[in-house]
Amino acid sequence: MSKLTLAIPSKGRLMEQTTEMFGRAGLTVSKVGHARGYRGEIVGLPDVDVAYVSSSEIAAALKSGSVHMGITGEDLVRESMSDADTRLLFLKKLGFGFADVVVAVPQWWIDVATIGDLEAASLPFRRVHGRWPRVATKYMNLTRRFFASKGFGDYRIVESLGATEGTCSSGTAELIVDITTTGETLRANGLKILDDGVILKSEANLLATNAAQWTPELEAVRAQIVKAMQHSASG
Amino acid sequence: MAAESAQQFAALEAQAQVLMSVFTKAGHESVAPSVIQPADVFLDVIGESLRARTYVFTDPDGAELCLRPDLTVPACRLHIARYADPATPAKYCYNGPAFRFQPQGADDTHPREFRQAGVERFGDRDAAAAEADTIALILKALEAAGLKSWSLQIGDLGLFRAVLDAVQMPVRWQKRLSDVFWQPDAFRAELQRLTTAPGAAAKAVPADLVAVLKAGDIAASAAGIHQYLDAKAIEVIGTRTVEEMAERLLDVIADRSAPPLDAASAALIEAYVRVKGPAKSAGEAIAKLLAGAKGGTGAALDAYDRRLALLANAGIPLDRVTFSAEFGRSLEYYTGIVFEVHAPGLSAVSPVAGGGRYDGLMRAAGADRDVTAVGGAIHTERLLSVLKGGRS
To answer: Which residue of B has its CA nearest to A127?
Structure first.
């Protein structure tokens, strides 16, 4: 039979925590071949192929169905598909990789505490500067959907693929949408989170995709993995 | 989208020739603005919602471009490129493709690629006369192409501002209501705030910050805010200016002691927004509403009556014209009159032509100041489908 492909983050804390998590569930993940390779296996589950993939690409792989299951942050998944709930099965929140996706503005904007205030400040901003305030983010879709849900449209997105929290002081954006865990980095960069500016409270999730080819046998393997994970306490 | 048939192509070309000859005979120079446009101008004018309906892409140099969603902004840019003085009077016409993403899927009346034939004119001294001429010209072209039955819907954002004047309220409230006019929910909320608790927002401003603000003096207030922020070791970062915040805070503070907007005035504004019907009776309805206004009927009614007189002078039968106060709310770059021409067999969301006044657009497109500008465009595929008695 064909195998179930499980995508696991290929580096960093997320990879370590994922491996630990599987370990606690009694599933030993190990690399196949040399240590720098990108294929792996789970001891005792011969029908599973492990693919080491970068976190953001895991979302894309789940979307296209090139893997059956994967572990990645909810933020990345919801950013890459607006209808994640119909495309994916959210099998388990894993209790690590916490990150809030938030709207943050300069601390000195004392008159702006909510999205409503932001809107009230946007129009005069446009009168003075001839353009809408710019929002720096790598979460273009989450940002658009969130602002649309709040009825706020008077902004302009500028894509930022790193050091987003520095874009306000460098003058390339007026506000940002970014991830934060403690808010410390935001504060250090002179930013504050809006009162109603939490877009998503994200953490790592175990996911399966409807886009992949599922046979009854593979579904049984999936059930086996989920069962094992449910018995392990999340760290 | 279905492949274009040779027959359809020939029919569109023939129709375009008729439309363009009407435009050029009226003194409009035929131009062909670029299909590929910088996305910046569109995004800065319309905002991020543009992306939801426009093909925006990045070229190999990283520049953000778009396939033009209409020909109005491209015509503005062409004019600015031609003349050092953007207010130089000019009349243009065009026939060419525009592109819009159709989230519900493209069909015959909402194609993703369609041809617009239209006119734009810039720098007119008599703006109201230019508007009437433009609308009359679009109708003339439609009739020349064979459209017999049509109706004209107009709205007027200038009239809304005149109504706010007649009601008499602080200028900052007028500004705010005009700003949120685009968003019916926010508009209702703002009106509610003004009639109930205009001072509520002021409570959130810290007392020691209020202390450094000087009513009516933005510069002094900004200086005070700088000191306030320095004392708290909060750094001013980004391009928004402290003066902007000072202005906003002064408005908020001014509301602290402002008496709420009286219920009668709020009711008048709400009633005005609901005015809709044949142009003549709508005018009477507005007159009746304004009879009770504190500031008198003044400029608002004069503007409305003059508008109708000009349309009649331009040869437009007024019994085919309807007015809707709320019309134009979804078209953010218009600043005055807005119009749509509807034809039988097309749904209410599929006008066969439309346009209006957009005085702020030239500046957004790169001019150094606002320039009077008015224009209108015909959706040529829709026109053809109506003339062929085709699908609705």
So the answer is: B244
- Given a cut of 70, the residues of chain A with pLDDT beneath it are 1, 232-235
**What is the residue extent of each domain of chain B?**
6-150+343-387, 157-195+262-334, 200-256
- Whether ipTM exceeds 0.85: no
Say how far apart CA B275 and CA B300 lie, in whole Å.
14
Identity of the residue in B51, B176, B237 whose CB atom sits nearest the CB atom of A190: B237
- Give contacts of B367 with chain A, Cβ < 8 Å: none
Q: Does B185 lie at the interface with A, CB-CB under 8 angstroms?
A: yes
Q: Are residues A135 and A70 in the same domain?
A: no
Q: Average of pLDDT values for B370-385?
A: 94
Contacts of A133 in chain B (CB under 8 A): 240
The answer, as to whether pTM is greater than 0.80, is: no
CA angle B334, B83, B126 (to 5 degrees): 45
Q: Are residues A20 and A135 in the same domain?
A: no
A160 shares a domain with A221: no
Q: Which of A84-93, B36-45, B206-215, B324-333 has the lowest mean pLDDT?
A: B324-333
Asked if the C-beta of B21 comes within 8 angstroms of chain A's C-beta atoms, the answer is: no
> Is B371 in contact with B359 (CB distance < 8 Å)?
yes
Q: What is the mean pLDDT of residues B218-235?
A: 94
Average pLDDT, stretch B93-114?
A: 86
Query: How many domains are there within chain A?
Result: 2
The residue-averaged pLDDT of B366-380 equals 93
Pairing of strands B90-99, B29-30: parallel
Cα separation, B50 vs B59, whole angstroms: 18
Task: Read off the pLDDT of residues B125-135 as tens digits, 9 standing for 90 and up.
Answer: 988 899 999 99
* Closest chain A C-alpha to B230 CA, distance in angstroms: 10
Taking the Cβ of residue B238 and every Cβ of chain A, the question of whether any pair is shorter than 8 Å is answered with yes
Query: Which residues constitute the domain of residue A216?
Result: 4-98+203-231
* Chain A contact for B106 (CB, 8 A cutoff): no
Which tokens hold the place of A196? 């109603």
- The answer to whether the CB of B375 falls within 8 A of the CB of B338 is no
Write down the CATH number for the domain with range B6-150+343-387. Answer: 3.30.930.10
Question: CB pairs below 8 Å between A and B: how many?
Answer: 88
Q: Which residues of B touch A174 (CB under 8 A)?
A: 238-240
B132: how many CB neighbours lie within 10 A of its CB? 23
